[in-house]
Design goal:
single chain; alpha/beta; Aspartate Aminotransferase, domain 1; Aspartate Aminotransferase, domain 2; about 35% helix
Length: about 450
């Protein structure tokens, strides 16, 4: 309940907020018509892993508010850093000026990412980071005299954002189909997603088979390809599809062999989500470009960073009149407030045993989800670190999916709201990506509510 309000006043506020929202606000990834019958949830504050609405109802944030929140809502350390920075410098143009938070953050990112990533370019959000990496890769080859390299290889089922460039290297029809006439055409390589394994085929064997297919693609197209772009280990918005780290090590080798860049989209999987600080660590590889966002600021402010090598940087270093400069900018590039809270987020990783705790929580989540493997409408239960997913199907044996119009996942979402949980399935994939501050009891609650919702959705 909001401070100083009685129950009826709070409920009225809840209704008023929802009504005002529908008059003026257009929400992302939302068919607004749905909200004629499904009320918006007016959130007024957050507290740890919980969100609280205007009526005092609490919701356990099982999806980290679109995968950004690491250390809880209204985290006092991050809030104090933000307040301190706001009293000093809120923003300054980042062309021709610099400041300590951006400098310090760049130094920290270079220190914790794979060795050889020496240069940091800031942007505002994940899609913008992908745009930067794509443009930078293309422009690198152009500066090196290879203007014929204009295409990108992406994985089937991949998702890299919804701006036109990022969408061009995505393969989720829900997002891509409408805008296809505006998009570049990627070269699609078969995903190493373990869901596609043949009977008896191990994840590592599938990765090897898919690498063979990628090799054949590069044999035909390497001369026109700038880069291969992947989401390391987990293809998130494509349905939490997961694959073996061997694919990443093999990809690094192929990119070297065929002289194309390797872009790692660690926007969703970075900062501890997969069990290591960065997913690429599990393969021991260094990409040519690493895109970071979401958890970078602990979910507090928009910020992204693209890390690349000094070799890429040097290809742009010349007299201004040469035309080699990378002319890409955002008004809020290197924003001091965002950089400062990112530094505090990284400090929490340094000061606390975050990854160790995550491994314990991930093991608990795995144990609680294990019984769902036997459910007649569950085709798969998969997990990588603090990301877990349950795939609902109409028939387990044939893995026949439910028709999209049936929206079984929506039923799980609605049941979750009734039982104090925020779950937002991807189609009929119910997934879990909670903040790292959850405890075992809260994980138990999330899974219990999800199982209840699944039972009701498939009944």
């Amino acid at each position: 309940m909001m401070s100083g309000m009685n129950d009826s006043e709070a409920r009225q506020t809840n209704r008023d907020l929802a009504a005002r929202d529908l008059r003026h606000v257009w929400h992302p990834c939302t068919q607004m018509h749905d909200h004629e019958t499904i009320p918006m949830v007016p959130i007024v504050r957050g507290e740890g892993a919980w969100l609280i609405d205007a009526d005092g109802n609490r919701y356990l944030d099982g999806i980290s508010s679109w995968w950004v929140n690491l250390f809880g809502h209204a985290n006092p350390r991050i809030a104090a850093a933000l307040a301190d920075q706001a009293r000093t410098l809120e923003h300054v143009i980042f062309a021709g000026c610099t400041h300590e938070p951006a400098l310090h953050l760049a130094e920290k990112l270079v220190a914790i990412t794979p060795q050889g990533l020496e240069r940091v370019f800031y942007a505002d959000n994940g899609s913008s980071a992908i745009e930067v990496a794509l443009k930078m890769s293309f422009h690198y080859w152009r500066n090196r005299g290879h203007g014929e390299k204009t295409r990108f290889v992406a994985l089937t089922g991949s998702y890299h954002g919804e701006t036109l460039g990022a969408l061009s290297v995505s393969d989720v029809a829900l997002y891509r189909a409408t805008y296809a006439p505006l998009l570049l055409e990627p070269i699609l390589a078969p995903s190493p997603d373990t869901w596609d394994a043949e009977p008896g085929e191990t994840p590592a064997a599938l990765a090897a088979r898919r690498l063979g297919e990628l090799r054949r693609i590069l044999e035909r197209h390497a001369g026109e390809v700038c880069a291969v772009i992947v989401e390391p280990l987990v293809q998130c918005a494509g349905g939490m599809r997961m694959y073996h780290p061997d694919y990443l090590s093999g990809l690094r080798t192929l990119c070297d062999d065929f002289d194309v860049h390797f872009i790692a989209d660690e926007i969703a999987v970075g900062f501890g989500r997969t069990g290591t600080l960065f997913a690429c660590e599990q393969a021991g590889v260094r990409p040519d470009f690493m895109c970071l966002s979401k958890g970078l600021t602990g979910g507090t402010l928009p910020l992204s960073a693209v890390l690349t090598t000094d070799a890429v940087y040097q290809a742009f270093y010349d007299e201004y009149a040469s035309g080699k400069a990378f002319l890409h900018s955002h008004s809020y590039t290197g924003n001091p407030l965002a950089c400062r809270v990112a530094l505090e987020t990284l400090a929490i990783f340094e000061d606390e045993p975050v990854l160790e705790n995550n491994r314990r929580l991930a093991a608990h989540l795995a144990a609680r989800l294990a019984p769902l493997r036997e459910h007649p409408q569950v085709a798969d239960v998969r997990q990588t670190g603090m990301i877990a997913a349950v795939e609902l199907v109409k028939d387990k044996t044939s893995r026949t999916p439910y028709p999209a119009a049936e929206r079984r996942g929506l039923r799980v979402y609605l049941h979750g709201l009734k039982r104090e949980c925020l779950l937002r399935p991807l189609g009929n994939v119910v997934y879990f990506m909670p903040p790292y501050v959850v405890d075992e009891g809260e994980i138990d609650h999330l899974v219990e509510v999800a199982i209840e919702g699944i039972e009701r959705a498939v009944a």
